[in-house]
Design a protein that fits this description.
Number of strands: 0
Largest sheet: none
Strand content: under 5%
Mean pLDDT: 81
Order of helices and strands: HHHHHHH
Radius of gyration: 17 Å
Shape: elongated
Length: 146
């Protein structure tokens, strides 16, 4: 959900803080970690801010998943761009594939669990499914923009 028209810079900053906090929760603990209270606390904002800036928890969750997905796409694109062309060993290729699929910063079991929980949430939370699905033919990114 885009920021309402006529919002103030303070309002935009608060909305951004909520999305950033929710995205951190999704990335670190999975979508089930997102609640009005957890996001407000993580953002350092009053509980009422979550319902003021988002129609409901699903809208906030979709914005968070969109943010995490966009960061993952950017990370995967950076890995591919840095790899360049040329011959490489099977081990190096496997490492690059893992970095593209899992992200370069996911090294702990908790990181991987949160990643897979977010992907699986697409089935249980239809609005988030558009962010978690593989791209449609002709689409170049894993995001809800296709």
């Amino acid at each position: 959900m885009a920021a309402p028209t006529g919002t103030t810079p303070k309002g935009e900053a608060r909305r951004e803080a909520l999305v950033a906090a929710a995205a951190e929760l999704v990335a670190g603990h999975g979508p089930d970690a997102v609640s009005h209270r957890s996001v407000a606390a993580a953002a350092g904002l009053p509980l009422a801010a979550t319902t003021y800036y988002f129609r409901d928890l699903t809208d906030l969750l979709v914005a968070a998943v969109d943010r995490v997905s966009a960061a993952e796409v950017a990370g995967a694109e950076a890995v591919v761009a840095a790899a360049g062309r040329g011959r490489r060993s099977a081990r190096t290729t496997a490492g690059l594939v893992a970095d593209v699929l899992l992200g370069t910063g996911r090294h702990t079991d908790a990181d991987l669990q949160a990643h897979y929980e977010r992907l699986l949430a697409g089935g249980g939370t239809p609005p988030c499914g558009r962010c978690c699905r593989p791209p449609a033919p002709g689409c170049t990114a894993w995001s809800g923009s296709c």
